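Quick note —
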Amino acid sequence: MNKDIQEELIDLVRHCLTDLGWLADFVEKISLDLPTDNRFGDFSTNIALKLSKLLKRPPQAIAAELVVSLQQKLAKSELKALVTQIKVEGVGFINFYLKENYFYDKLKVIITQGKTALKSNVGAGRKVLIEFVSANPTGSLSVAHARQAAVGDCLANILFFIGFDVQREYYLNDEGNQINILGASVDLRLKELKGQKNEFPENYYQGDYIYDIAREADKQKIKDIDLGNFAADYILKIIKQELIDFGVNFDCWYSQKQLAKSGKIEQAFSRLKEKKFLYEQDGALWFKSTAFGDDKDRVIIKSDGSQTYLAPDIAYHEDKFNRGFGWLINLWGPDHHGYINRIKAAIEAFGHKSDELSVIIVQLATIFRDGQPIQMSTRRGQYITLREVLDEVGADAARFFFLMRRTSSHLDFDLEVAKKQSAENPVFYVQYAHARICSILRSSPLEIGDDLNLAVLKEKEELALIKKLLEFDTTLNICKATCDPYMLTVYLQELAECFHKFYDLHRVLDQDEALTAARLALIKGVKIVLACGLELLGITQPEKM
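Predicted structure written out below.
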């Protein structure tokens, strides 16, 4: 929503820098930010601070000279109808102050167009593949997987909303040693159920669910050789249902087993050999990843002829590009951090740009109860599962809490706080703002017409609320730039706080009919944005609470 005037103001700054001979390498470094304190304008740029080191002059002096040029150009521009002041403030920030009519007009667009007014076409239809969760089908999803699921699904929602063509993909590691161990675990439990005593190795899967699989395998008379695949399919059904109950639906479940059968791994190796990025040494086949910044070359086929984990991953990522995706986003756990460089090296070896793959490391989550961490699952004896969290707090609270810290930060999730029906619970706080507005709109006898006089909204809380609404698209663009939906949870809490503060100080249904109509329109705008934001988070928008 702010994009139009932001671009015009950035162009204005760019032209002034060019006239002053200061542009140099700063074309892409000009940005407008929203001041955290609206006493310092409606938009702000720190370009003078960036130029200070280059020009070896104080940023205040640079800013003062630039403002003179900006004011001269502004006087000849159509922007003069919207901009009231340009001031140098603080250590050299240049702040732009806009006329109130600008905000009234933007609010009216939201009210009349609804959610459509909030959309943009930043993505311009670019095809994006987000691969996330991708947990091995060897057990129920943990809270670590749950956090990745919430982040990936919400990020996909946001990118689609701002114009990208988005697909969600789960990479299914359905072959190899872990499936063999899973089958052997079921086999031992099956024998145990039949009265046979045996040693259960520590690296086998320990949870009670293995007994459940063993009983079902016995009922269906599954052969020993098929136990691994049977168990993986059994668990995959559980995982899919957990994700559906969490509000996460994948467009594609990509099978590693099918990838191996397709011949695409050999085709990928053939191309890399043609490009001379593979070589043999000590009986093994190596990928020359150091040619692309990796700290050492990587083995892809061992001397015994078996493939390393990197082998199918190289082919898998090239296949993503071959399917027409121009931007790949992978959400991985912190134990995969060292894997990033080798995958980026692989896509560069095929001729793709490094930034066409974004790898987001999603840090772990610790589950608390009343401020104390829960170390073990009450039912599985291994780890806290997504199912346990869903059963206790529900999908709405679970999703919001998993999203409310940066993905790069460890997350503490307190189950008792997530269940509270009070302002202490952030998802309740935001949902209650939406429900409260719905209640007010239902109780009002007035219809919100097209002939609104929004200029009667003069109170500072009213103007702050309008300005907060117009930060929505900026927030989504930050989420896109960081590949992290965290800022949307922050924004919605701030918007809810602005609304509650306004409502506590001012009557919406006032004796003055014009003022009542304007305030009803204002809170309708808040409702539209709150509902849209909650929808992007995959959270319900209750009309009663």
